[in-house]
Amino acid sequence: MTDDDLLRYSRHILLNEIGVEGQQRITDAHALIIGAGGLGSPVALYLGSAGVGQITVVDHDSVDLTNLQRQIAHTVARVGSAKVTSIQTAIGALNPGVIVNAIQAPADAVLLDTLVAQADVVIDCCDNFVTRHAINAACVAHSKPLVSGAAIRFDGQVCVYDHRNAQSPCYACVFPPENSFEETRCATMGVFAPLVGIIGTIQAAEALKLISGAGQPLVGKLLMLDGRAMAFTEVQLQRNPTCPVCGSVISV
What we know:
Elements lengths: L2 H6 L1 H4 L5 H10 L1 E5 L5 H11 L3 E5 L24 H12 L4 E5 L5 H10 L2 E4 L4 H14 L2 E8 L2 E8 L8 H4 L11 H4 L3 H20 L8 E6 L4 E6 L16
Parallel strand pairs: 1-2, 1-4, 2-3, 4-5
Antiparallel strand pairs: 5-6, 6-7, 7-8
Helix pairs in contact: 4-5, 4-10, 6-7
């Protein structure tokens, strides 16, 4: 790291749990963010400000005026622009040393197979079950840790699925792909603006912990937030040995 880097990241370096070595791991890391909206905005901004060396952001959508109530990486001036290039601009203004790859495309299985293999950590900030299952399948296939978050109305949740850990469940263990879940979109259900910031910030924290080695990540734990009461609930999760995605995978 340069002298400027040591100054920029000095508050991280002062932490015994991170230090110079942990910050260097952050600087050397490649994070993949799927979704550049309410959750992806704080995730991208915090990973960028923390100095994650390379960030790839995938989203097919463009910035709309209705996004600005909660998607804090975007601005009025960038309405109509691709969300991924808007986030690229936002991170560049915070930390121009970070490489940001902006991919405006749907996160399908083929694209995810390529991108997940290149990443050190994957952060799921999307809003539909089909994409979530595709992300999970790619993370299981490539043994990559996955930080999953969701938020709707006043309710949010975060979980870490670390596929390098033989005891860790995968997303499909908790939400089986054969089950039918009702899709809930904020366009019809609404979402409390700060909620996505809270959940996204927790996702960013979990990703940085995984990269740097600091603390204990939320592996096998579903952290749920009731924003009305600002009450957190933690649920222990178990790996499903008959899971169609990870049940046949032997971790070493």
